[in-house]
Design brief:
The complex is a heterodimer of chains A (258) and B (284). Chain A has 258 residues and is an alpha+beta fold. Chain A is 51% helix and 17% strand. Chain B has 284 residues and is of the alpha/beta class. In chain B, a hairpin with a 2-residue loop joins strand 5 and strand 6. Chain B is globular and about 50 Å long. The model of chain B has no long low-confidence stretch (mean pLDDT 94). The chains are: A alpha+beta (258), B alpha/beta (284).
């Protein structure tokens, strides 16, 4: 039997406890195969438990074990980094708990914070360049670690309480759909729920719209002067929290600025 | 055999693990080198790379991987090799090591060090992959003997002959894990000294020491969660007496004790009698 065939059958047997390798392995090696089977499953379970620590704390051992088992059975690890294995676990929890949206949303937050932790570094904003930009035409540059998703529950509040080891609030539906943002400033992964005009502005920016178009979302709810003041305050906040790391004026396909 | 040169160095070190990051970043630990798990730092950015660069300012760093999969019949992952080289170029390690095993097949990653059959075909596959890896990385590789829990019906030779032939043909070097020899020898019922007698010990550049545990069915398991066992210390004393200058370290990945405890354990390794050698110098 070729090495390729041996490896094919061996890796399949790792994931199938019924698979029989008696013709492949030496006599008496069955208990050794069980060691490898156990190590494979244990490493994936440990990875999910470590990455989704708050999710685990929220749903408890039994529900987490069931979800991890379902995920491991359906998703063989494909990447060389174990850090990648949590991809799709939040969606698995959404599928398993359709009536408890906070579970999948907490899991998404666990995952996004883990990805932000060692994701690409942000460039340092240049205050001089920013001060001299034609802001009406400027397009914002977000932290390269930024991830976002719509949420309908108070998942972020629950996650915060679990992180602070305080009693978490009961799961609740939000009054209106919001977006949960995750990014990293310096070495610190951050998260925040945004709603209302700020959410619309950020979505507009993520679609590549310039700053004046973004501000239209504010203008619908306030006078022009108030909208400009509010937009300036939000931009200052985004820069200070490292959510926005630069801006550029796009001219005929070329960027001017950061 | 491809010709690679790797100057032997003597010294004692520890693995860089999160509970001890601050101590190593401050250069406050009396070791001659540190070893890192390569994959933990093959990332885009953030705190891990910052930690590693600060540590590198104080210590020589050996890069030790778990996902090269040098024994994969389907060949190596080019993206993995590219990322590994990028980290090596950034850190300028003492050397790069991984295990004589395989970790992927049919696109599935085992995330465990799987055993190779000891066959001529497997030797050819490993040597072909080693040639690609050493050429891409522009550095020689050290291969570590893994712990083994089973053997294959089609084995054509013992593990020591398998490893020796790979070293002879590829020109790679050896990271000798003394605990793994003990674990494998016990699990498969051979004398660990037979293994040592057969190896080209002049190709050993690094030694691993670690603790193991006894599994439910009596097999020894390489768990890295306990102090080095007495039997392994005894075997190490023989290795140290037979080898030239090597870097020796203790691996601890679970139930990680305070640094002082590990340093005290490492001191036992220093104190073991061996051939006299010059100790490598720290970077700063």
């Amino acid at each position: 039997m070729s090495l390729a065939e041996i490896q094919h059958r061996f890796v399949a047997a790792l994931r199938d406890p019924q698979a029989n390798l008696d013709a492949l392995i030496a006599q008496g090696s069955g208990r050794g195969l069980e060691v490898y089977r156990h190590a494979h499953g244990a490493s994936l379970r440990a990875c999910l438990a470590e990455t989704f620590e708050k999710t685990h704390a929220w749903i408890g051992d039994d529900a987490f074990e069931a979800a991890a088992g379902a995920h491991i059975a359906a998703h063989p690890p494909r990447g060389w980094s174990l850090n990648d294995y949590g991809e799709g676990f939040a969606a698995e929890l959404d599928r398993l708990h359709p009536d408890d949206p906070e579970i999948g949303e907490i899991a998404w937050l666990d995952w996004a914070l883990r990805r932000a932790f060692d994701g690409p570094d942000s460039p340092e904003p240049d205050p001089t360049t920013l001060a001299n930009l034609d802001w009406d035409c400027a397009v914002l540059t977000f932290a390269p670690t930024l991830a976002w998703r719509p949420v309908i529950s108070n998942a972020a509040a629950i996650w915060t309480a679990l992180a602070e080891v305080t009693p978490p609030p009961a799961a609740q539906r939000l009054d209106a759909t919001a977006d949960l943002l995750v990014w990293r400033r310096g070495f610190s992964p951050l998260y925040r729920t945004v709603s209302g005009p700020e959410r619309l502005m950020i979505r507009s920016a993520l679609e590549g719209r310039d700053f004046s178009t973004m501000c239209e979302a504010l203008a619908k709810e306030a006078s022009d002067d108030d909208a400009i003041e509010k937009a300036g305050a939000l931009l200052t906040q985004w820069l200070s929290e490292g959510l926005v790391v630069g801006a550029a004026v796009l001219k005929a396909g070329a960027a001017e600025g950061l | 055999m491809t010709s690679h040169r790797l100057t032997p160095s003597a010294g004692f070190g520890l693995g860089l693990r999160p509970p001890h990051f601050a101590d190593f970043m401050a250069g406050a630990v009396e070791v001659d080198f540190v070893e890192v798990i390569s994959e933990n730092f093959m990332v885009s950015g953030g705190r891990p790379l910052h930690v590693l660069e600060r540590v590198r300012e104080h210590y020589p760093v050996a890069m030790h991987g778990v996902s090269l999969s040098i024994g994969s019949a389907a060949g190596l992952d080019r993206d993995y090799l590219r990322r590994l080289k990028s980290l090596a170029d950034r850190i300028e390690p003492v050397w790069i090591s991984d295990h004589l095993c395989w970790t992927k097949a049919q696109g599935v990653q085992s995330h465990d060090l799987l055993p190779l059959p000891f066959t001529e075909e497997a030797i050819e596959v490993v040597c072909r992959n080693l040639a690609q890896a050493q050429e891409t990385l522009e550095r020689p590789i050290l291969l570590e003997n893994p712990s083994s829990y089973l053997t294959f019906a089609g084995d054509q030779m013992p593990e020591w002959a398998f490893l020796t032939e790979i070293v002879r043909r590829s020109g790679c070097f050896i990271l000798l894990d003394v605990n793994n020899i003990f674990v494998t020898a016990t699990n498969h019922g051979f004398d660990a000294r037979t293994y040592l007698d057969a190896l080209p010990l002049d190709r050993v550049r690094q030694i691993h020491l670690a603790g193991h545990s006894v599994g439910r069915d009596g097999l020894l398991i390489d768990t890295h969660d306990a102090p080095v066992r007495e039997e392994v210390w005894e075997l190490f004393a023989e290795v140290k007496a037979r080898c030239g200058p090597v870097l020796t370290m203790i691996e601890r990945d679970d139930d990680i004790p305070p640094l002082d405890e590990l340093l005290q354990e490492l001191e036992r390794g220093r104190a073991a009698p061996g051939r006299p050698t010059a100790t490598m110098e720290r970077a700063a």
